Amino acid sequence: MCVGPEAIVAMGLAAEGTAAASTIATVASVGMGAMTGITALGTIQQGKAQQQMANYNAQVAQNQAIAARQKAEFEEKAHRRQVAQLKGTQRAGAGASGGELLDMGDIFDMTAEEAELDALAIRYGGQMGATAAQQRATLARMEGRAAKQASYTDAGKTLLTGAKSGLALL
User: Of 151, 121, 161, 163, whose CA–CA distance to 52 is shortest?
Assistant: First the structure.
């Protein structure tokens, strides 16, 4: 059997077409791999950014806890000073009116008890505010760690999906 020149040219073109198709598939696969890697890296960077934001929010909440404690401490001291002044005014009023201090003892005791309850309520309110802020700080840190971990998981999924797609092209 004799093969003519047209058949030889056709076989050569077919071989070139197969090589070109293979080269295109390889280039596409490499390009897809690069995009997959960039996407995975972006996912990790996004997770790190979310963690940084969460850490910032945690620090803000930590500062709020400190401020709540300091405010309560200040208000408690101010209240105690006011009560001390009130007691002095009560004693002076009792002395000026001619009343005996022994008879005024119950009033002084009631004033002292009420003042102490108020001071303790101020302290408690500050502690509750500080505790709430502390819990927000802890939650923000946990969310940050979770976002970072999720970014690694998502990046891994992206790489595996990209690898699977790249192999399918070859």
Answer: 151
